[in-house]
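May I ask for a single protein's sequence together with how it folds?
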Amino acid sequence: MTLSTAAQATLLLTSYFSKPAKGAAKPLTPTEWGRFAQWLHETNHTPGDLLSHTAPWVLGKWSDEKISRERLEALLQRGSSMALALEKWQRSGLWIITRSDPDYPKRLKKRLKHAAPPVLYGCGNAELLNAGGLAVVGSRKAGNEDLTYARMLGAKANQAAVGIVSGGARGIDEAAMQGAIQEGGPVIGILSEGLLKAATSSQWRQGLMSGGLVLASPYYPEASFNTGNAMGRNKYIYCLADAAVVVHSGSSGGTKAGAEENLKKGWVPLWVKPTQDPEAGNQALVDAGGSWCEHDIEQLDIGSLFPARHPLSAEEPPHQPDITSIKQFTSDTDAAKSETGKVSEDAAHDDGSESETDNGQHETVTEEPETHDVGALKSSETTASPQTPDSPEGETISEGLEESASELNQLPQPDLFGGIVSNEDAPHPEKPEPVTADTYSQEEQPAKHARESSEPPWQPAQIDFYQLFLSELQRLAQNPRTADDITTETGLHKTQVNAWLKQAVEEGRLEKLNRPVRYRVVSSSSTSDTKRSKQHPERKTESTT
């Protein structure tokens, strides 16, 4: 997994790498990140500057009541935690894209502006994220008739070269996605929980291995279920699609709230399946502005669900995503042990309201003033391009600006694990068409002046994961901790943890306590005394004498 310094900085400022510790700095929400990225642009800086020697000078100019400088500095100091988490996720086949990457969904940027998530975690064919399609949503407690309708709707959409977008939850979501997967996809699943576990689950293996499925999430890949995340991801389902069908909605809850938000924002046309269920909220959604769709799935015309400008219209030929270009999917079941938590009975689409949860994975989003859509300057499959802010509304980007951006893209980018990605190894972008400010969102616009990049001070030529483990122990084992506690906190395999603990004890870095067996970090002064004793045993003898 190769990330540019801009992508690394974005991750450090906006993401979790383990369960949040009490009192630890909380990553920036999408709205907070949008505001900070806007400031970086206005001061002619990029996120990558925050990992260079100029970082103290850049942050020294920042002042905000809600986003303190101390909070930003604390988040940027989590380099070792990020490296350990990325190594674990990569072994399970996960990838990461940020808003500066070419693969980032353009529909999210255009429709959500600053509220678009700065980071997406995923597995499977990332190219599908820009394919669009038909969103199919509904209740977890749907009856057999509705489940059959959803499954056949997924299959029928695939036969019409239309992808399915849904949330991966049991019930309507799962039925629609499986119906399409059995026909070969394409399918986009936006998960609110357990992405790491889903990456190695037999449930999705067929779609992932064939390249017809992508699973993505804006949340910590090991997050367990919580209502806030399930409610929050609904808008991403609508915004990644071109039309939506609600198969079954409760009279209240997530499905209804998400559909009403879509009607209010006007993202995509909303269709509602007729139902005889007196407790359903389908009628209320039609009253709010939705439209009834064909009740008989055999008679349903998929093309009629889309607006005239959709590729299925007569003006343009159907667009079928290329699902033959498959990113290699690897799995390591030992590394896929993620915390799934206990899922409540009416989870995902049907319960709760937006609120900040205990693990800090979701926060109600307040939209920023509108900014313009995003474009990608550099096409790269595995290397993230530098993340740069957008230009003010209405301003046209000059030819000189494009040249500066081109120079910036030609600079070698440091790899998280110590390698340098040269511009010769990376795919070369096609010549871009003339670009205006309408093409870029705030943090992705090319910088006005190319700056020399420098490796972040915490990044050695080659990362020693044992040393990263020791640095984590400085935080985890100030007080005695068991091997199981440390295994849980780091997310590493127990065998690896035990081997490193044994090595650390032998080196005098850890103190092993018994009854029960626990480990505690040895202070630097104690470590020095131990080393001196080993190097000069005669001194100890003389002292004893």
Notes: The domain at 126-326 is CATH 3.40.50.450 (Rossmann fold). The chain has a mean pLDDT of 74. The chain is about 35% helix and 10% strand.
